[in-house]
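Q: Give me a protein?
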Amino acid sequence: MLTSGPDALKILARSTAVLVSVLTLASCTSGGSEAEAANPCGISSSSAEEALVRDVLGAEDFATKDYRTTSRLVDMMNRALPAIRPEKRVFYTNACRYSTDDKHGDVSATFLAGWSIRTSVVPSPPDDASYLLNGARGEANGSRSSLLVQCDMPGELAAKSRDVWFTADISFSPSPPDVDQTTKDRRMTLTYLMARRVTDALGCENKPLEKPPVVKPLPTP
């Protein structure tokens, strides 16, 4: 629901303050606790990820569901990578989910990770905002945010990894019809930080998401 007047100004000020504080946190830390290392959605209090999750869900409290451990996720992705080819262009799996259940219904953000062959071309909906973040390609709209990352895998997976993108998606439910640019930027930042956990766990030798995210949408064509 759209608002105007003093309430709208308060919401805008809060959103701007959250994004600034998140980018400051992200430039200082990417987590590192045992819980964060063991589980894809494990986050510590006062982290950039926690601030973003609370903001995108619109709630102070939320539940976390890990569909698999980080080590299990990495194992699945290592096994799936050799199978990516023109006739099997993508692999996706649910990693974890943040949600809040209140009287207005369930609000959630589900994080997915996988691979997609680099020749895949998916048309972008007209409401998408496009990004270039430290070489990674991103898109965000009302229902999801996505990131395509070059991940140079070590060892016997090295050659195959040059044919694919590491892909990170967060799907949001419910998906409102109108999402402003600030919300898309926050979602893109969260996707980047969550994707970095997986690229670190995979051992991408080029360390593609090592730098803090600078989230600025590309000009509309």
DSSP finds six helices and seven strands in the chain. Residues 1-32 have pLDDT under 50 and may be disordered. The two ends are 29 Å apart (CA to CA).
